[in-house]
Amino acid sequence: NADTAMYYAKEKGRNNYQFFSADMNVRAVERQLIETSLRAALQGGQFVLHYQPKVNLDSGVITGAEALLRWIHPEWGMVYPARFMPVAEDCGLIVPIGRWVLREACEQAKRWIDAGLPPLSIAVNISALEFRQSDFFEEVRTILDDIGLDASVLELEITESVLMRDTESSAAILNNLKNMGVQLAVDDFGTGYSSLSYLKKFPIDVLKIDKSFVDDIASGNDASAIAGAVVGMGNNLKLKVIAEGVESKLQLDFLQRQHCEEGQGFLFSRPVAAEEFAKLLQAHGSKKS
Ligand code: C2E
Ligand code: MG
Ligand code: MG
Ligand code: MG
């Protein structure tokens, strides 16, 4: 920890002390500030969810939304997950924050459904610590029951690296969730371990191809072979494949040719506030027959 590091740095002499202390202090102070502010944020209602559409690549229809956490700090303005999520995970605050996210996203989906908007699925990101909580399963069940939301509307996104950390317990947790009827997605697919055999062991519905592979798609570029191969494999395993971070028409064309079912990215829409998402869904949701 920081104190111990400081102690050893001091032992090594004056120059080292100055070098280490400056570096350690800045990081420790920033971390501490974020942690304290996160506690206040949870109590003070400073979190909001933005929603990014998931789009069927053949029809252009919006099939769902991914809920993405935003922190509206009174002085700093909008803070993105990259800045506070690592701290929230380290100090355990991600657990209560994650519960808030899950409930808020499900309540929002219920409001859209009750308002008669086109059907959709709502995807929520689940971090390692939340996923491994012994009462996570009950938490999900309670939220769905309280709100009266059909379990099949909810999709949980869990990253490949979290699932691979302990495949035995992951399979057990996933099976419990699957039996409840929620949809399960592997997020950032392709970035973790490249073992594919576990895909058959886990009751997964959706593969989200990581943006880095979508970025590699460029005309005549060998790198796009990976994105193509992942789509092909997902299709063969009867999984729904979603490409993350689609930004260009060229990427869209390639993904359509590979029969990738869905996409998400700035080409379609950035993550937007709930009111704005409702307008997108109204205009581009599936037509009810
Ligand atoms: P993720 O789940 O992989 O989410 C996708 C990220 O890519 C989002 O960043 C989204 O805004 C961004 N994105 C989508 N399309 C594009 C595109 O076309 N171009 C580019 N450059 N970016 C695109 P965001 O919202 O900053 O979230 C970052 C990560 O933070 C998420 O990655 C997820 O791992 C985590 N996160 C966000 N919200 C939550 C949450 O409520 N709970 C948990 N546990 N994690 C969250
Ligand atoms: Mg995600
Ligand atoms: Mg992702
Ligand atoms: Mg990602």
UniProtKB/TrEMBL annotation:
Span of domain EAL: 31-285
GO BP: cellular response to nitric oxide
Taxonomic superkingdom: Bacteria
Ranges annotated as spanning the membrane: none
Molecular-function annotations in GO: cyclic-guanylate-specific phosphodiesterase activity
Catalyzed reactions per annotation: 3',3'-c-di-GMP + H2O = 5'-phosphoguanylyl(3'->5')guanosine + H(+)
Protein's UniProt name: Diguanylate cyclase (GGDEF) domain-containing protein
Full-protein interval shown: 261 to 549 of 549
